[in-house]
Amino acid sequence: MMTQAAESVAALIWCPFPDNDTARTIAAQLLDEKLVACANILGAIESHFLWQGERDSASETGVLFKTTAALLGDAVERLGKLHPYDTPAIIGWRADAAHPATIAWLAAATQSDR
Fold first, then answer.
1. Are 79 and 30 in contact (CB under 8 A)?
2. Are strands 10-17 and 91-94 parallel, antiparallel or unpaired?
3. What number of other Cβ atoms are within 10 A of residue 82's Cβ?
4. Which pairs with CB-CB distance under 8 Å and at least 24 residues apart come from 100-104?
């Protein structure tokens, strides 16, 4: 089986935010830092969850970030530092499949002098 280098593997990050403005601000920061190539701000979502032993719900804004597997850990860590929640729900994973043009775009968009 052929393995791909981490920079040639797509990755995704899911994260809810308290509102659209916060989502936009943090998305812009991650884009400026070239940790992600894209942030799909999905709009209002209705979240139901357990928090501190109690069931709760909230209106949030969902965001799906697109990056490379090579940057996944750094992007998740930075998102955790920027996020306003004490315990943000940040989940990242490597994509099993992506179109070659998508992989090339992700790599080019996130290329920096790191």
1. yes
2. antiparallel
3. 15
4. 102/10, 103/8, 103/9, 103/10, 103/68
pLDDT digit string (tens) for the chain, length 114 residues: 344 555 589 999 999 999 999 999 999 999 999 999 999 999 899 999 999 999 999 999 999 999 999 999 999 999 999 999 999 999 999 999 999 999 999 999 999 765
CA neighbor of 12 nearest in space, from 38, 33, 41: 38
E-strand ranges in the chain read: 10-17, 38-51, 54-68, 91-94
CB 103 within 8 A of CB 9: yes
Find the CATH number of the domain harbouring 42.
3.30.70.120
Total count of domains within the chain: 1
